Amino acid sequence: MRATIEGTAHTVRAIQAILRAGTFEFPRVDRSVRMARLVRQAGPFAGLVRAHANNGLDRPAIIDHYGTVTYAELDRQTNALARAWRLDGLGLGDSIGVICRNHRGLAIAVVAAGKIGARVVLMNTGSAAPEVAGIAAREHVHGLVYDADLAANAVDVAADVRRYVSWGCGPDRSLDELIATNKGDVVPLPSRFGGATLLTSGTTGIPKGAPREKLSPLAAAQLLDRIPLRAEQTILIPIPLFHATGFALLIGSLALRMTMVLQCRFEPADALRLLAEHQCDAAVVVPTVLQRMVNLGPEVLRRYDTSNLKIVLSAGAALAPDLCRSTADAFGDVLYNGYGSTEVAIATVATPAELRLVPGTAGRPPATCRIALFDNEGRRITEPGVIGRIFAANGAGFDGYTDGRDKQRIDGMISTGDMGHIDEHGLLWVEGRDDDMIISGGENVYPIEIENLLADRPDVIEACVIGVPDPDFGQRLRAFVVPTPDSARDADAIKEYVRKRLARHKIPRDLVFVDELPRNATGKVLRRALATQDADG
After folding, report:
1. Strand runs (DSSP E) across 351-402, as ranges?
2. In angstroms, rounded to a whole number, what is the distance separating the alpha carbons of residues 87 and 334?
3. Cβ-proximal residues to 439 (8 Å cutoff; 6+ apart), any chain
4. Does residue 508 have a cis peptide bond before it, meaning omega lies within 30 degrees of 0?
5. If I label 465, which of 12, 214, 258, 268 is the partner at 20 to 30 A Cα–Cα?
């Protein structure tokens, strides 16, 4: 009975969030009904774009380095590409790999794949050629869309895979050519949604495929319940669309008839220019992107009018308390912190009010989502402050990896692979990956606490702490610190700073100054790469 009541409450809350955002057009309820039917049949990409075309929507859909493409143009261009792909023998049940940066070519490929019922596999632009070839083989890719400057990444893909260039000049046919030589009138939609496969970040090995074969009609509430995104806003997306957060915002933006401003290659001053030029209402970032924007300083920030910015959604990595405060100083109370993973999608969201109260928190679950903490024996943790393994569930989770493996599940929830605790306010705190925990002298150490403390220093931009082998303690702590340009780079002073604030076993024995931390294309720190560096850098 209790589960039924809670489920009904979540459903009501989700519907309220979706209506509040303006997803459905009132009083034209008939349009909303047709849109829901098309999405159920052909999936969120093809279904939404077709519905908007049927309703005569002609506002800008995408603004990128090419210019502007409207919703009507997006529908016609994807019709033409779908027709060309069908002539090439691609169709229902096939897989199309996409290895593109942020521009209209990626969105066009994803929507066109939906119109022929093909499954789209979103690949990381930072993957090396052998990795791309291995993923393409494992995911049974029949067609591959790639940027011309990423041709070397795709060179090892099997010869029988059909290839298409999405941007730039290359040896294969371009999407522009296929669109120009085929009719853009309406094409029949497939009988079912082909699905999409996202790839994990690969920080602990070869990226795994996390398929999305179905999507709850209430899944949009994950974004809309605690984040005030609204219909027909303009949003800057400088983070990769192949990333789970970018993918979610692509769907959400289409559903809300938003204008997406895509930044192909992130550059902080250019991101500010785009925010000002297009009077963006929202932006989605990862912490490293946000940090680089804030680091430009007040003098540069004042050159750009970002007064229309209402939402900055950060996701993909832990948000340091110092960055929460500096973002508020730069842009006002607009920061939202989203926590989740490729497998579970969004799990929690922290609002600006919560980040003011306790900077760095991951917040609470939005509608349709739930979380719980469990110990190593699978017992549920309910006491505040006790660290446990984080499990989550919602309407957009996956059913297992494409290679047959799965994440651990308890009580219908999936392991995120992270450790965390819930504080006295009922807010989630993420301590880090369960395999990031360092055991030094028999004591458990979670790096994020030390990293956040180091980042609070005015002479430190960011830091990463790892465990390295030690003959006496098993592991000792090594901190990699990115100093500010005016830093004295005094390792002893920094260690003393930690010693005064944390327990003895949390003090880094080694401290290495570096110009930057190694990261993958989605902004996550590559701790394994740091582990190969010597203590002298």
Report:
1. 370-374, 380-381, 388-393
2. 48
3. 445, 467, 474, 475
4. no
5. 268
DSSP-based three-state secondary structure for 499: helix
Q: Domain of 493: which CATH number? A: 3.30.300.30
* Residue found under tokens 């060309």: 84
> Helix, strand or coil for residue 392?
strand
Other Cβ atoms closer than 10 A to 370: 16
Residue 185 belongs to domain with CATH number: 3.40.50.980
Containing structural domain, residue 442: 437-531
Residue 228 near residue 153 (C-beta atoms within 8 A)? no
CA distance 412 to 222: 18
Residue where a domain terminates, one of 201, 216, 231:
216
Query: Is position 167 within any domain?
Result: yes
Rounded Cα gap, residues 297 and 458, in angstroms: 13
Distance CA(489)–CA(459), nearest Å, equals 8
One digit per residue, the tens of pLDDT, for the chain of length 537 reads 555 556 667 678 888 888 888 887 766 777 778 888 898 889 999 999 999 999 999 899 999 999 999 999 999 999 999 999 999 999 999 999 999 999 999 999 999 999 999 999 999 998 889 999 999 999 999 999 999 999 999 999 999 999 999 987 778 999 999 999 999 999 999 988 899 999 887 655 578 888 877 666 667 888 899 999 999 999 999 999 998 899 999 999 999 999 999 999 999 999 999 999 999 999 999 998 999 999 999 999 999 999 999 999 999 888 999 999 999 999 999 999 999 988 888 999 999 999 999 999 999 999 989 999 999 999 999 999 999 999 999 876 677 888 888 889 999 999 999 999 999 999 999 998 887 888 888 888 889 989 999 999 999 999 999 999 988 788 999 999 999 999 999 999 999 999 999 888 899 999 999 999 998 877 788 888 888 776 554
Any domain includes 6? no
Locate 330 and state its tokens.
Answer: 């730069």
Rounded Cα distance, 210 and 369, in Å? 19
How many domains does the structure of the chain reveal? 2
Is residue 236 helix, strand or coil?
strand
Q: What is the CA radius of gyration of the chain?
A: 23
What residue ranges in 65-218 does DSSP mark as E strands?
A: 67-70, 95-99, 119-122, 143-147, 162-167, 196-199, 209-212
- Matching residue, tokens 């990226």: 207
The pTM is what?
A: 0.88
In a domain, 509, yes or no: yes
Structural domain contains residue 136: yes
Report how far residue 236's alpha carbon sits from residue 228's, in angstroms, rounded to the nearest whole number. Answer: 15
